[in-house]
Design goal:
single chain; alpha/beta; Histidine-containing Protein, Chain: A; GMP Synthetase, Chain A, domain 3; 3-stranded mixed sheet; 5 helices; 6 strands; globular; disordered N terminus
Length: 182
């Protein structure tokens, strides 16, 4: 009896779980989701629990969406982003003006600086954001910047804070959003 118990334990420990998916099945799921969102120029390769995305897109926001979609597939624990943002080449000065205007417009729409502030720097199409801001400012701003033609990447180092106006709902977020959409 003891011997059969040890064999059963060994089979459970060393046999692959029956619910595990093979790489091909997971890759097909990732590709189906990308195609459903019309991201047909991005391709997935899966090894274990890691998916590697390659291909080209026209907007940074499409690249970010592909990363987010792939990371939500059951069985994926990490995403390696090898997607290139081609799109048009826009001079850094022009991108910088567009990004700064977008941030200023968003702050004005929210009613002022009670939602924090975000500064930006653009270098070779990569937008670096810094500051302290409420989610109501940070999230829509980040989304809009990713849709600007010519933006190749967005690096975010914005501390998420609660808005100064107590009438606004607190999101409960008080962590650093050091998110890189690289």
């Amino acid at each position: 009896m003891r011997f059969s118990f040890l064999i059963a334990v060994a089979v459970l420990l060393f046999a692959p779980p029956s619910f595990a998916q093979n790489d091909g099945t997971v890759r097909a799921k990732v590709q189906r989701v990308l195609n459903a969102y019309s991201i047909k120029s991005v391709h997935a390769a899966v090894q274990g629990t890691t998916v590697t995305l390659t291909g080209t897109v026209d907007l940074c926001s499409t690249r970010v969406l592909a990363d987010q979609l792939a990371s939500r597939i059951d069985g994926i624990q990490s995403v390696r982003d090898g997607i290139q943002v081609l799109g048009p080449v826009v001079p850094d000065e022009e991108l910088s003006r567009q990004v700064k205007k977008l941030i200023a417009d968003r702050i004005r729409k929210l009613g002022g600086f009670g939602f924090g502030s975000i500064s930006s720097e653009v270098k070779q199409g990569v937008v670096a954001l810094n500051g302290r801001a409420a989610p109501q400012l940070t999230i829509p701003t980040l989304t809009a910047i990713g849709k600007i033609p010519g933006v190749k990447n967005v690096l975010v180092n914005v501390e998420i804070i609660s808005p100064a106006n107590p009438g606004w709902k607190d999101s409960g977020l008080s962590t650093r959003a050091g998110v890189s959409t690289n």
